Amino acid sequence: MTRTNTTTGARGDLDVFEYALLRVVPHVERGELINVGVLVYCRARSFLGARTHLDEDRLYALDPCADVRGVRAALRAVENVCDGGARAGQAAGDDAGRRFRWLVAPRSTVVQPGPVHTGLTADPEAESERLLNLLVR
Question: What Å distances lie between residue 10 and 2, 7, 122, 127, CA to CA?
Fold first, then answer.
């Protein structure tokens, strides 16, 4: 038996997932950015995860004075919110969907979420790594 939000086929059970890129925009007014991570949310599997990779050389090419420590701290904070628990701060009591919506809300800071996209996956954790390799590294 399959759930209503699952597609079955030769590839097995696939669930809908949503994802957004995490970007570093050193100078908002210039609009230049680098992709530094991906957020993946799959409601059917109660999965919320973040995978990050900061290429410091690329960041310094955009901004030789970039605050790498600050960017890394912001990325850790995103990962903590995804993981939930005490390290998620005020979001600790929220479900995965609510935490995802909070993380992808538009903001004008150095670390920003991109637009939300959708797809189908049998393994949201593996999808996180695949998207990181495809879109960030």
Answer: 14, 10, 12, 18
Residue 111 has phi, psi (to 5 degrees) of: -100, 120
Q: What is the CA radius of gyration of the chain?
A: 16
Q: Are 15 and 42 in contact (CB under 8 A)?
A: yes
pLDDT tens profile 42-76: 999 999 999 999 999 999 999 999 999 999 999 99
Q: Measured between alpha carbons, how far is residue 16 from residues 3, 53, 80, 121 in Å?
A: 11, 25, 23, 7
The total of other beta-carbon atoms located within 10 Å of residue 49's CB is: 20
Report the distance separating Cα 137 and Cα 134, nearest Å: 7
**What global pTM score does this model have?**
0.87
3-state DSSP assignment of residue 7: strand
- Residue 19 · residue 103 · CB < 8 Å: no
